[in-house]
What does this fold into?
Amino acid sequence: MKHKLYLLTFLASLTISSSSFAAQMKDMEDGDEAVAEISKSDINRIKLSGDRIRATNANAGEMEISKDNITGEIFIRATKYSENKPLNIFITSEQNFTYKLLLYPKAIPAEQIIIKNDAVVSHADEDVAKISKNSYQQQIIALLKAMRTKSKLEQYQISNLRKNIDLGDLTLKRTSTYKGQNFIGETFLLINDSNKVLELEEKMFFKNGVRAIKIENPMLLPDEATEIFIVS
It folds into this structure.
């Protein structure tokens, strides 16, 4: 409990004094080494631009290191045993980049060091990718729903141009087409004209370019029919 209280007080003091930090920008690649100055008496901050610090390695007793698990930053202070000699620290990021810093303690105010790596995929880029992926899935879901309910869908042209496909003992008819900028949806009616039970699987209707397949009734008795929705 004592250690937890100390840590909370420590982080609070960092928040109050952060506006007085100086900033050193370091453009680095994976495995690079950079030199920086730190305060030998005050707390110093190290941050990764667009990334988060996962782990650190330094010689025991040379510096106090505190990690903020929310922001992914670390705060360091040179100990009295090492305030007059250069310090080495290795930093590993959540995106698996490793950096080496050679730190020179000086009689200066608190410093902050920001490492920038152009190879980093920023959180903003990840968010855009997630949004794009979600939007892609939502468009397909909306299209399938409109096809199943025979509803109009904004930005889609609906055609009832029918097409019959000969499958021997089966009858397959295309009954409608939804054509949009990104996707084309087709509704088919499949009739089991055989005297056997027919088990349907999505892979039976897969071909290059198909994005989604929905079979209303995958088990057809003789003379039964089902609708099949294909998005490509």
